[in-house]
Amino acid sequence: MNRRKFLQGTAIASTGVLISGPYVRAQSAAVLKFSHTDQPGGARQKAAELFGQKIEQYTQGRYKLQIYPAGQLADDAKSVQQLHMGGLDFTVTGAGTYATHIPTMNLTALPFMIETYEQGWKLYDGSKWMQAQYAKGPEFGFRYLSTFEAGFRSITTKTQVLTPADAKGMKIRSFPNEMMRWTLEAMGFGVQIIPLPEVYLAIQQGTVNGQENPIDTIYTNKFYEVAPYVTLTQHVYSPIPLTISERTWQKLSPADREAITKAAREAATWSRETVRANDERQVKEMSGLGAHIAKPDIAPWRAAVQPVIAQARQKYGADVDAFLADLEAIKKA
Hints:
The chain has 333 residues and is α/β, with parallel strands linked by helices. It folds into two domains: 3-150 and 239-280, Bacterial extracellular solute-binding protein, family 7 (D-Maltodextrin-Binding Protein, domain 2), CATH 3.40.190; 152-237 and 291-308, Periplasmic binding protein-like II (D-Maltodextrin-Binding Protein, domain 2), CATH 3.40.190. It contains 15 helices and 13 strands. It has helices at residues 3-9, 43-58, 76-85, 117-126, 128-134, 164-167, 178-187, 199-204, 215-221, 223-226, 246-251, 254-288, 299-304, 306-316, 318-332; strands at 10-12, 18-20, 30-35, 63-68, 90-92, 142-148, 152-157, 171-174, 190-193, 210-214, 229-237, 240-245, 292-294. The strands form three sheets. It has a six-stranded mixed β-sheet, sandwiched between helices. The protein has a five-stranded mixed β-sheet with strand order 4-3-5-12-6. The chain has a two-stranded antiparallel sheet with strand order 1-2.
């Protein structure tokens, strides 16, 4: 192989690091920090890795992504704060986490509203109401790029929970989100806020009786080992928007903004397709590893959380009706 062809394929930089691909990364590549709280083996990490690969490709090596999984740098809420302060460049976290800054984002966690992945994708990508929420981000130091997938939230507990009556007196972990707390309390649970990387130990030690998360998160974090009763309530659709620090965004050239946005959307498409395809396989694998999988009658759960809609309307007023109207239009389309 001649020298020119070698440099077009694989090269060794001056640091001695092997670099593969259709280009050689510029020695002065800027490093962008990406933080998330899921484990390294999960779909969130793999989507982040793909995002990084696409960034390098589409910026011709001007930027490199450094990923920090499992809350190494910050929990979800603090990651969003770090975007505002400029300590991080990217994070991906539940839509409800952003509600600390944009309270109306809480409405995305209204229970039993979204029934299919396709409905959720249309809501997050095309809803006028949702785009209006996204537009508020730069004021708080972050900008929405795309929406990675996490899936529908279900419950894992130490003992079987098939109805809201079974939930009475149980302590369950959740993340710091008002709507989620209202929902879980309406179901009968006592709610305790614990960062995701600490949940396994908290269940193991009896601090809480269980937790609720999408299947991919349950599977990747092995929560079924310490809370083996997996109840597929699918009570909230819970995607994870990817955001960039507004400070970082303002430093980018128009071409690099376009490149990073393209990378974000392509990684999101992969994330959505992968998480949806993995649900059935992961449930089956957990069952084979000793988890007790239950598909409960959802009617009692729906009935239990009806007061949450009234609570939301009392606090958020017309935004509730605007959100529900967009969702209804999506379902009828």
